[in-house]
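Task: sequence design from structure.
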């Protein structure tokens, strides 16, 4: 999630590939670690969530360090929207990023299923409904975007650790366990595992995620503006 102006240039295929690969590895890690953690925890959801959290944070750090210089390491349509609004990415390039992010996350979910020998094609049944869950997703995405923009403004070298840490915290202090990403929400709706979310609950999550991201972008535009 390094600061990067992305236009429709010859570099776009490389950047799109980076977004797709990063999204696939991230979703595969979230879902795969959730499957393994729930199997090994023997019914202890707290232990399962701890394993899921650690794997996700570690993977995020690695992906941002490795792919950030190429694509900005968004892996998240809400982050891409914020970068467009901040004029750090062209509007024309954004749809390519979003398609790559969604496709990558879905492929990552299928990869996780295949690795753990469960049906590749699934529909989630985990209920995550209600205003508290929507509020949690709005708050989680607000915190994510706030952390990204704050780190970019003050400590760009700390972006990977900052993002990994805010997601680690989000797993434990939000009622929804911090999806904070519309693309991964879609993928998790296609996974009837520990990390799943029912398809009928996903639109509420996605709406709240975009709302949280926009509120964070507006606030950060005031707090972190550069002095004239």
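Answer:
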């Amino acid at each position: 999630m390094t600061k990067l102006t992305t236009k429709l240039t010859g570099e776009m295929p490389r950047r799109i590939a980076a977004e797709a690969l990063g999204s696939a590895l991230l979703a595969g890690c979230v879902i795969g670690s959730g499957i393994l953690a729930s199997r090994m925890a023997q019914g202890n959801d707290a232990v399962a969530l701890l394993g899921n959290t650690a794997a996700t944070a570690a993977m995020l750090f690695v992906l941002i360090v490795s792919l950030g210089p190429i694509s900005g390491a968004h892996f998240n349509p809400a982050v891409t929207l914020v970068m467009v609004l901040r004029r750090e990415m062209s509007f024309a390039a954004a749809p390519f990023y979003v398609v790559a992010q969604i496709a990558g996350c879905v492929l990552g979910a299928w990869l996780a299923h295949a690795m753990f020998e469960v049906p590749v094609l699934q529909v989630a049944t985990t209920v995550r409904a209600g205003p508290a869950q929507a509020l949690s997703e709005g708050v989680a995405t607000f915190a994510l975007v706030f952390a990204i923009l704050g780190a970019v403004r003050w400590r760009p070298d700390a972006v990977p650790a900052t993002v990994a840490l805010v997601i680690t915290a989000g797993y434990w202090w939000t009622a929804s366990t911090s999806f904070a990403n519309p693309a991964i929400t879609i993928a998790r709706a296609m996974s009837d595992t520990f990390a799943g979310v029912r398809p009928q609950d996903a639109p509420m999550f996605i709406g709240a995620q975009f709302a949280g991201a926009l509120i964070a972008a507006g606030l950060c535009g005031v707090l972190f503006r550069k002095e004239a």
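The domain at 12-223 is CATH 1.20.1080.10 (Glycerol uptake facilitator protein).
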